[in-house]
Design a protein that fits this description.
Strand order of the largest sheet: 1-2
Distance between the termini: 181 Å
Oligomer: single chain
Number of strands: 2
Strand content: under 5%
Structural class: mainly alpha
Helix content: over 70%
Radius of gyration: 51 Å
Number of domains: 2
Largest sheet: 2 strands, antiparallel
Order of helices and strands: HHHHHEEHHH
Shape: rod-shaped
Number of helices: 8
């Protein structure tokens, strides 16, 4: 910079020496040239700084583009295979009834009519006495058996429902796993992995096949014992009716002579 200023001063003085008839201020001209050169230098420096900033921003943009290409943009992945089906499955409620519902809905008539699809013989709502009278059974005495039968039917419904939902979940896990194998970005991979994790959690929540199978055996055993007790209750009711009828028949056939005794007199 100093060398440039010296050259400009020399050139100005030389011009002034040759121009004898031009009235100028050499020092003012030199200072003006110097200030002009400094302004140009500052402008060049500012432009260089801006170019460096632009290059840095360009490099950052390229890095971001490379990252998005490699890892993907999560905001753009709005439709993930299996996600909607997982939400539907989580929002699906079971078909089971509570113990209170089973007890309140139990009806003795159901127990009297039920034969477990032909496995047992139904008791019937009425019975016939030896004297030929048809009497209705006391329905309230059989409500406990109806509750047990409803519990068995409830278990079977829940088991069938769980088995069906389990099969659907396994198919969806397989479909999502195939999509996971074909994923091309890290964002897609992470979202698909999250969906599979959700499916596994849902499957674990309903995957009780072994427990249900064991429960089914226990319920059948309870049902068998309850049926024996039900039949015994029916036989007790019939015996009581028979005994009452026999007492009435006996009292009508053999009447006690309550007339005062008469002794012969001479």
């Amino acid at each position: 910079m100093k060398a440039l200023i010296a050259i400009l001063i020399a050139a100005t003085l030389s011009t002034a020496a040759h121009a004898q008839y031009v009235v100028t201020n050499p020092i003012s001209d030199v200072l003006g040239e110097i200030m002009h050169v400094e302004d140009i230098a500052k402008t060049v420096e500012m432009i260089n700084n801006q170019v460096q900033q632009i290059n840095a921003l360009t490099q950052q943009l390229q890095q971001i583009q490379a990252y998005v290409k490699a890892f993907g943009d999560p905001e753009q992945l709005l439709s993930i295979v299996g996600a909607d089906a997982l939400i539907d499955s989580l929002n699906t409620s079971g078909v089971g009834q509570t113990l209170g519902e089973l007890q309140n809905l139990a009806s003795g008539v159901e127990a009297l009519r039920d034969n477990a699809n032909g496995l047992y013989q139904s008791v019937g709502e009425t019975f016939t006495t030896p004297g030929g009278f048809e009497l209705p059974r006391a329905e309230e005495l059989y409500r406990k058996f109806a509750a047990s039968q409803r519990a068995t039917q409830n278990f079977e419904s829940v088991y069938d429902d769980v088995s069906q939902r389990r099969g659907v979940l396994k198919r969806r896990i397989a479909e999502t796993t195939q999509q996971l194998q074909a994923s091309t970005t890290d964002a897609e991979t992470q979202k698909l992995a999250g969906v599979i994790t959700g499916y596994n959690a849902e499957l674990a929540a309903i995957d009780k096949e072994v427990d249900h199978a064991l429960g089914e055996s226990l319920v059948l055993d309870i049902q068998n014992r309850e049926d024996r007790e039900k039949q015994e209750q029916a036989r007790k009711e019939e015996r009581m009716a028979e005994f009452s009828e026999a007492i009435r028949s006996y009292s009508q056939t053999f009447r006690i002579n309550d007339a005062p005794a008469v002794f012969p007199t001479k």
